[in-house]
Amino acid sequence: MEFRYFMAATLALGATTALAHTGVKNPAVMARMNGMSAISDNVEVLGTMAKGQVAFDAASAKMAARAIARHSAESVDLFTAQETDPKSEALPAIWENFDDFTAKAQDLEAFANEWSEKISTLEDMRAGMRPLGQSCKACHSLYRE
User: What is the enclosing helix (H) or strand (E) of 77?
Assistant: First the structure.
């Protein structure tokens, strides 16, 4: 049941990404938004397979998990400077607790890398969806509007 809610929220997030980027003037904030969108896009790839909307493909699933890891690693650098823009959803708490923010990004990176090596079946992929969602929520609940 929780999985369905996670997937619905993920797909809704992807649908609103284009609107969120409209009017962003600060290039650093745009780069952050693009990085977060890349993570969301890859979660969506996995989610559509998990829901059976597209056929499971182990190579594509592994590639999506690796991309999540890569973009998670990049996110720390993207958020190092405290840049603002009216369209930004980043909360000041990121910079007030940057060590925790960094640890959460590193946790997601480590999880996604490890998970990518384990994905060979649909069940393997589905087994990682809940921890993935929990990792995303752990950061978003504290650091995103």
Answer: helix 58-79
